[in-house]
Design a protein that fits this description.
Chain lengths: 200, 200
C-alpha cells in the first residue's frame, strides 16, 4: 500500500469539517490511508498576513453563504456556530495526546469535536468542553485534563503546527499526497486524478 | 433560454485565462450564454485588503505550482509570463469599447489577449500592444488607439469594475448564475450542479 495521504485541518474551519466527513470515503476510493493532522490557522495567518475568511470584506460574505451551500452539496449536516471562529488549541493538544496513545480514538475524537461544533453549536474552545467530548469517545477524562496543562503536551502540539507550516500548509483543509499539495475540498477531484494518473 | 451566466475575469489572472478556455464548453453543456465581463483585481484588493496571490507568503508558492498544474489538468496550453502580474487597464478599456460595437469580436479579442499573455509571453499591459492584438482580430486599430485616450471610454470600463465589485466579485474567475456566485474554476462542477438542480 502506498503512503498515507496527509490530511491537514483546523478545528474551527467549516471546510475542514466538511473534509473530515469526506475523508474516509476518499481514502477508501483511493485505497490509501489518511493521516489526520490538525493544526492552527492563527500561526499560519501570522506568516501569510492573512485573516479569518469571514473577516475579509466581500470574501467573508461569500464564505458565509458558501459554508452552508458546500455542506449541502456534499451531503453533510451543518449548522453555522454562533461563536465563530474560535481558538482551538485545547482541541489540538487533546488530539495529539490521544493520538500518541490510540490513533483510532484520536480520529473519533476529531469527528466528535467537529460534530459538536458544526452540528450542535457547542463552543469547543474551552479545555473542559474538549475533555467532556473526549470522555464521550472513551478517553480517560482525568488523565486528559491533567495532560492539557503539561508543557510537553503543549510542545508536542506546537511541533505539529510548526511542521505543517514548514510543509507549506496555509489553509484548511489541505492535503499532501506523494509530496503534492492540494488546498480545499474543491480540489479533491484533482487530487484523485493525480493519484490515479501518478501526476501529470 | 434562461439568462446568461456572468463570467468575470481579470486579464492578468492565470485562473481567469484557464476559465476563458473552458467557458464556451461550459455554456454549451448548460445551454446558457456566457456574458464575458473583464474587471480589475487592483480595485478589488483595495476593498478586500488582499494582494496578488503570488505575493502572499506560502499561498504564492502554492499558486505558482498550481497555475501550471491546473492548466495541464484542464488540457489548456500555459506558459508562465515572465512579467507577472501586470496592469490590464488598457485591455479592459479595449474590451468594452469593442464590446459596445461587436460583442463577438470583443470575445475574440479577450481570447487573443489571453493567448498572447499566457502562451506567448507577450506583455499585454501597454496600450499599443493591446491595439496590435485587437487589430489581429479585425478591430480598427486607429479608431481603438484614439478611443483608449477618451475619458468616456475610461468611464465606461470603470463603471464595469464598480458594478462587478458591487455584485461581490472578489476573485478571478468568478461566475454568477441566477444570482448565485461561484468563485474559481474548481467550482465549475458545483455551478453545473446548481443550474441542473435549480439550486438546493
Amino acid at each position: 500500500m502506498a503512503g498515507a495521504i496527509e490530511f491537514y485541518f483546523e478545528f474551527s474551519s467549516p471546510y475542514g469539517y466538511i473534509a473530515s466527513c469526506l475523508a474516509d470515503d476518499l481514502g477508501q476510493r483511493l485505497g490509501r490511508d489518511l493521516a489526520w493532522k490538525p493544526f492552527l490557522l492563527g500561526p499560519v495567518f501570522k506568516t501569510t498576513g492573512q485573516a479569518p475568511l469571514v473577516e475579509i470584506p466581500m470574501k467573508g460574505e461569500y464564505s458565509k453563504r458558501d459554508f452552508v451551500r458546500s455542506a449541502r452539496f456534499h451531503g453533510v449536516a451543518y449548522r453555522q456556530p454562533s461563536k465563530f471562529p474560535i481558538g482551538t488549541v485545547a482541541a489540538l493538544r487533546a488530539f495529539y495526546w490521544v493520538h500518541d496513545r490510540d490513533p483510532a480514538q484520536a480520529r473519533a475524537l476529531a469527528k466528535a469535536l467537529y460534530a459538536a461544533y458544526f452540528t450542535n453549536d457547542i463552543d469547543i474552545g474551552p479545555a473542559e468542553t474538549v475533555v467532556g467530548i473526549a470522555s464521550s469517545v472513551g478517553v480517560d477524562a482525568a488523565a486528559l485534563a491533567a495532560a492539557l496543562g503539561d508543557s510537553a503536551v503543549k510542545d508536542r502540539a506546537k511541533s505539529e503546527v510548526d511542521a505543517a507550516i514548514a510543509k507549506g500548509v496555509f489553509g484548511s483543509p489541505f492535503f499532501i499526497v506523494d509530496g503534492e499539495p492540494f488546498w480545499g475540498n474543491d480540489r479533491i477531484p484533482m487530487l484523485e486524478a493525480w493519484v490515479k494518473r501518478g501526476g501529470w
